[in-house]
Recover the amino acids of this structure.
């Protein structure tokens, strides 16, 4: 009897693995709703100060289907860098690169990682949670906030993003996804004030991105 249960469990595992591989490989790439090239040059009190263009080698490495990297500045001279990368099918044409792996280097290291709550999220969401890192190079600090804005969800964790990616590939045949990162230098060790600025910018950015990204319903 015990052997029969073991054989049944193994067969069930094989069947589940076959079903997951079959369904996740049959996803349909989803084009972006509105190009990021049309993203607003004004976000709250911040206006566009500089745009960045990645080289062909970098774009090929990232496999990103649309992206933007802008520097915004307010009237007080405070700067925020915004990066958004969109993938029509994550894991097929390209994949995310976590800031936890990419940012350390060149003297920069991670001093702390935590989740922070925002007062507003995407469309129809009252609140949202994003990831935040405090990075340091000698006496210079920067705060980095990032999240995944995928198929109608705001996701802070890399691990939950992967779980939802598999579930949506199975149930919706979709793997489209967006990585969003904002970062700013911390002047005079004013960490709390910098965090507050970034939180307000993140809330406005999420809402604006809803006009560009495919939501839960296509």
């Amino acid at each position: 009897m015990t052997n029969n249960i073991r054989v049944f469990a193994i067969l069930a595992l094989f069947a589940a693995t076959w079903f997951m591989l079959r369904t996740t490989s049959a996803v349909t790439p989803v084009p972006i709703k509105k190009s990021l090239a049309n993203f607003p040059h004004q976000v709250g009190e911040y206006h566009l100060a500089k745009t960045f263009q990645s080289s062909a080698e970098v774009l090929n490495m990232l496999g990103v289907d649309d992206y933007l990297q802008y520097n915004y500045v307010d009237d007080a001279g405070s700067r925020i860098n915004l990066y958004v990368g969109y993938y029509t099918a994550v894991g097929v044409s390209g994949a995310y690169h976590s800031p936890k792996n990419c940012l350390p280097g060149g003297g920069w290291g991670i001093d702390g990682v935590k989740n922070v709550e925002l007062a507003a999220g995407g469309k129809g969401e009252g609140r949202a949670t994003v990831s935040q890192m405090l990075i340091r190079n000698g006496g210079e600090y920067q705060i980095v906030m990032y999240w995944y804005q995928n198929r109608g969800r705001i996701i802070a964790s890399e691990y939950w993003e992967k779980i939802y990616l598999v579930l949506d590939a199975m149930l919706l045949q979709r793997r489209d996804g967006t990585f969003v990162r904002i970062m700013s230098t911390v002047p005079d060790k004013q960490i709390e004030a910098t965090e507050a600025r970034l939180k307000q910018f993140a809330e406005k950015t999420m809402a604006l991105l809803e006009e560009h990204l495919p939501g839960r319903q296509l």
